[in-house]
Design brief:
- Helix content is 72%, strand content 4%.
- Strand 3 and strand 4 form a beta hairpin.
- With 373 residues, the protein is mostly helical.
- The longest helix has 71 residues.
- A 3-stranded antiparallel beta sheet has the order 2-3-4, with no helix packed on it.
Length: 373
């Protein structure tokens, strides 16, 4: 019997060897595959955990950023309105003084300067703060992941974030002086008695923005963000020097310049929208030419409304208003809650800038670059 088994094994030894090799290879491959699968699962789980952690940290940075922006925007707006105080002139005008014309000339410059400074200052503040806070946020995330000496300590963080205080103070004064000079150049020739259209108001703001963009004496305010933020700072520490230089590189990049110009243009458009509402609300039909009713149809300035209601169609671009009458109601848009949603221009601009998708994307891109380990 043993001899038979031995002969059987001898005859089929090659088959047994091949079968054993195959089974061994299969076992080895299965073990290897299982090991690699476990490693892949662990890697993916780690990636997911890091992604979730990074997302939560970015969202926390974004909340901090929004809160800081809202707080500082209010301070900047108040400083602008205090620096360009029209209320004092309005009070003097109510007393019917002898230099009434001179006061009206002052107030027309001041109102346009207020609006332009608010647009530029709030946009620059939003951009610089988003850049700063996302750079800091990126560094802090790297510190939480890597086990080495922190890149940013609390002392350096405080010193870095205090850079924006210069813009809120002395930087804002520089901006007011520059914009006021340009506004005088553009608005001075406009007579108080002139009947002005919405298009002319829009062209006035566009002219101011164009002159500021091409200012060869003091420079474009958008391209002076580095000046507003870091030119006044003494740097005597290597880490602080590194982060400041990185911030300067970001501020001077074409992408940041483009986004800032876009937000400024969008803010001016929002102001024009509010002024357009003023033209519509203050317009009253004065002759039959403005409104003709014929058998249930309303014809207004050549526009036909079938089955029209009593309200005429208003082509806001053809409505005219005396410049002197426009000034007080535009001033109220700044100081009182007469804008849409019971708000005013400073608050309206702050809300729109805080929710601006381009600024959010800019912040997210900066955070991503500086948080990468």
């Amino acid at each position: 019997m043993f001899s038979t088994i031995k002969n059987f094994l001898h005859r089929h030894r090659r088959k047994f060897l091949v079968t054993g090799a195959v089974l061994g290879s299969i076992y080895f491959l299965m073990s290897y595959a299982q090991k690699k699968l476990r490693e892949w699962q662990e890697t993916e789980a780690k990636k997911f955990f890091e992604m979730t952690r990074k997302k939560q940290h970015f969202e926390s940075t974004e909340r901090t950023c929004n809160q800081t922006i809202l707080s500082l925007s209010k301070i900047v707006s108040e400083n602008i309105l205090t620096s360009l105080n029209t209320e004092e002139i309005v009070q003097k005008l109510q007393d019917n003084p002898g230099n009434k014309l001179e006061l009206w000339e002052q107030i027309k410059i001041m109102i346009f300067t207020r609006i332009c400074v608010l647009v530029y200052a709030l946009s620059i503040l939003q951009v610089t703060l988003r850049i700063q806070l996302n750079i800091i946020g990126g560094y802090l995330y790297r510190d939480s992941v890597l086990e080495h000496e922190p890149l940013i300590d609390s002392n350096l963080q405080s010193k870095y974030l205090s850079l924006c205080h210069h813009f809120v103070g002395a930087g804002l004064e520089d901006l007011v002086r520059q914009i006021e000079r340009v506004v005088k150049r553009v608005v001075d020739p406009i007579s108080l008695k002139k009947k002005i259209t919405l298009l002319e108001v829009e062209q006035t703001f566009w002219s101011i923005q164009t002159i500021l963009c091409t200012d060869t004496n003091e420079g474009d305010p958008v391209k002076k963000m580095v000046h507003y933020l870091v030119d006044h700072t003494e740097i005597n520490e290597a880490k602080f020097d590194t982060i400041v230089k990185e911030t300067m590189d970001v501020l001077e990049s074409d992408e940041v310049t483009s986004v800032t110009m876009s937000t400024i243009s969008r803010s001016f458009s929002s102001v024009i929208d509010e002024i357009a509402n003023l033209f519509v609300s203050k317009w009253v039909p004065t002759s039959k030419n403005h409104l003709e009713v014929d058998e249930g149809h309303v014809v207004t300035n050549g526009a036909l409304k079938l089955g029209g209601p009593a309200d005429p169609f208003i082509n806001v671009n053809k409505v005219e208003m005396h410049f002197v009458k426009l000034l007080p109601i535009v001033n109220e848009l700044i100081t009182k809650n007469t804008c849409k949603g019971n708000t005013n221009i400073p608050d309206l601009l702050t809300q729109q800038l805080t929710l601006n998708d381009k600024l959010k994307l800019l912040g997210a891109n900066i955070y991503e670059v500086f948080s990468n380990t």
